[in-house]
Write a structure and sequence with these properties.
Blueprint lengths: L2 H8 L13 H10 L2 E3 L6 E3 L2 H8 L5 E2 L24 H7 L16 H12 L2 H20 L6 E3 H17 L7 H15 L15 H19 L5 H7 L10 H32 L1 H9 L4 H11 L6 E5 L3 E3 L2 E3 L4 E4 L1 H4 L35 H18 E6 L1 H4 L22 E6 L6
Parallel strand pairs: 2-8
Antiparallel strand pairs: 1-2, 3-5, 4-10, 5-8, 6-7, 9-10
Helix pairs in contact: 5-11, 6-7, 6-15, 7-8, 7-11, 9-10, 9-11, 11-13, 11-15, 13-15
C-alpha cells in the first residue's frame, strides 16, 4: 500500500478533519475500488457512483431517509443489531419520533413526506417564484450598495447571508418590519455554528436552535392569519391544506416554512461563495462571462456540479438488498456522496475539470434527486444568476484578496468542518467599482 492509500485508510472521514479541505481525492480513492464500498472505521457504506446514487435516491421502498442529516452520529435509537436479514420498515416507524430531526422534511418517508412536500410545493408556485425573482434584482442592488465604495467585501457576511435570508423572507411573505429580526437572528446563528442547523453535524453535535426559533415565529404568524386573514402571502400559507383537504396544524406549516428557510439559505450561501471564488480565481472565465451573460446559468450549474453545497446524505436500508452488485443488509447506513457522484467519470468527462460549456452539467445531483430534491434549488439557482449579473454590473474586475487568502498558487481557504455540508467559511473579494452614472 503506498503512502497516499495508507492515509485514506488511516483516517476516518466522519470523525477526522483530514479530508475537510479536499474530500474529492478520498471519494476518488473509494470509487476506484468500488462505487459502493463499506468504509472501515464506522461500517458505513459509501456510495460514490452516479448511477448508484440515483438508484438509492429514487427508491424509498428500500431506503429510508429517517436519519438523512445525521446518520448514526446523532444517536440511533432503533435497535438494528442482528436484523440484517429482516424487513425493518415497521421497526423504523416504531422508533421514528425518537430519531434526530424527525419533525423535518428531509428525514420523512412516504406517505408522510409526500403529504408535507405537497404542502410545500403549493406554497412555492411558479407565480410566487417569479415575483420573488423580481424582488431579488432590487435587493441585490441594495446589498451591493452597502459595501461597493470600499472596493472589497467579505462575501458571506456582507452579501450572501443577508441576501439569502431576505430573499426567503420575501418568498414566504414575512412582513417587512420583521425582516431585520430574521436577519439578525439567523445570521448570528450561521456565524456561530457555521450552518443553519439542518444537517450541520460534526462529531455527534446536533444544533436545533435556529429551527426552533423559526418554528415559534411561523406558528405565531399562521395562528394570527387564521384568526385575522389579510390577503397576504402568510394568509395563503395559513389557508393551505394537505392534498386530502385536511387542515395542517400551525406547527406543520411552520416546519415547512422553517425547512425552506434553512435549506434555501444554506445552499445559496455556499453556492454563491464558490461561484465568486471561481470568478476571482479565473480571470479568463470572468472575462468570458462578462462578455456574454447568457453563459451565467450554465456556469452556475457547473459550480453546483464540481463544488456542490451538500457533500452527501445518509440513507438506512429497510430490507436486505443489493446496490451495484454489493450486498446491503437491512439496518445498514449508506452515505450517498453527492460530491462524489458529480465527479464520476462514467457520467462526466474529465470530471475534476471546471468546464463552463459542459453540456450535461445540469445532470448533477448537487441538490439530491427524487422525492427529496432540495426544495431550495430553484431559489439558489436564481439567486446565483441574479447575484453574478448584479456584481458584474457594479464592478470592472473581481479578485481574490491576497492579503487574506494569499497569492495565486498558495491560497489559504477554510471549509466547513462537517461531513454533510461543503463550503467556504469566508471569502474576501477585491474589486474595482464602476463609477456612478456609468453603469
Amino acid at each position: 500500500m503506498n503512502d497516499k492509500h495508507h492515509e485514506f485508510e488511516k483516517y476516518d472521514f466522519f470523525r477526522s478533519d483530514r479530508f475537510v479541505n479536499d474530500p474529492y481525492s478520498y471519494f476518488d480513492y473509494l470509487r476506484q475500488q468500488s462505487p459502493v464500498l463499506r468504509e472501515a472505521h464506522q461500517g458505513i457504506v459509501m456510495v460514490t457512483g452516479y448511477d448508484e446514487a440515483l438508484e438509492i435516491y429514487n427508491d424509498p421502498e428500500r431506503f429510508s431517509s429517517c436519519m438523512s442529516t445525521t446518520g448514526p452520529f446523532g444517536g440511533c435509537p432503533i435497535p438494528l443489531e442482528g436484523r440484517g436479514n429482516e424487513d425493518i420498515s415497521a421497526l423504523i416507524e416504531a422508533y421514528r419520533d425518537k430519531t434526530p430531526f424527525s419533525d423535518q422534511l428531509p428525514t420523512m418517508d412516504p406517505p408522510e413526506h409526500t403529504k408535507h412536500r405537497a404542502l410545500l410545493m403549493a406554497l412555492i408556485t411558479p407565480k410566487r417564484l417569479k415575483e420573488n425573482e423580481e424582488f431579488m434584482w432590487d435587493l441585490a442592488e441594495k446589498q451591493i450598495d452597502s459595501f461597493i465604495a470600499r472596493g472589497e467585501c467579505e462575501l458571506m457576511g456582507d452579501y450572501a447571508q443577508p441576501f439569502a435570508v431576505l430573499v426567503i423572507s420575501d418568498l414566504l411573505g414575512v412582513p417587512p418590519e420583521d425582516r431585520i429580526q430574521f436577519r439578525k437572528h439567523l445570521i448570528r446563528q450561521e456565524q456561530e455554528q457555521g450552518g443553519t442547523g439542518v444537517g450541520d453535524v460534526k462529531k455527534g453535535e446536533v444544533h436545533h436552535s435556529p429551527l426552533a426559533w423559526l418554528y415559534d415565529t411561523f406558528s405565531a404568524y399562521i395562528e394570527d392569519r387564521r384568526r385575522n386573514p389579510k390577503g397576504d402571502i402568510l394568509s395563503g400559507l395559513a389557508a393551505a391544506t394537505f392534498p386530502d383537504r385536511s387542515v395542517p396544524e400551525p406547527l406543520d406549516v411552520a416546519r415547512i416554512a422553517a425547512n425552506l428557510f434553512a435549506a434555501g439559505q444554506e445552499t445559496t450561501v455556499r453556492l454563491l461563495s464558490y461561484a465568486f471564488q471561481v470568478i476571482g480565481e479565473r480571470p479568463d472565465l470572468q472575462q468570458r462571462l462578462r462578455a456574454d451573460r447568457s453563459l451565467i446559468p450554465n456556469f452556475v450549474e457547473e459550480c453546483l456540479r464540481i463544488e456542490g453545497p451538500v457533500k452527501g446524505d445518509f440513507r438506512l436500508a429497510k430490507k436486505p438488498t443489493k446496490v451495484g452488485g454489493v450486498d446491503i443488509p437491512a439496518g445498514t447506513f449508506l452515505y450517498v456522496a453527492n460530491s462524489a457522484a458529480n465527479r464520476d467519470s462514467r457520467k462526466f468527462e474529465n470530471p475534476g475539470e471546471f468546464q463552463m460549456d459542459r453540456e450535461n452539467a445540469r445532470l448533477h445531483v448537487a441538490f439530491g434527486r427524487g422525492r427529496h430534491t432540495c426544495p431550495g434549488a430553484p431559489l439558489a439557482r436564481a439567486e446565483a444568476v441574479v447575484s453574478v449579473n448584479r456584481m458584474f454590473d457594479r464592478t470592472r474586475d473581481i479578485r481574490i484578496s491576497e492579503k487574506v487568502h494569499g497569492p495565486p498558487g498558495a491560497r489559504r481557504y477554510g471549509y466547513l468542518p462537517t461531513f454533510i455540508l461543503r463550503g467556504l467559511t469566508h471569502l474576501v473579494l477585491e474589486f474595482d467599482p464602476v463609477p456612478e452614472g456609468s453603469q
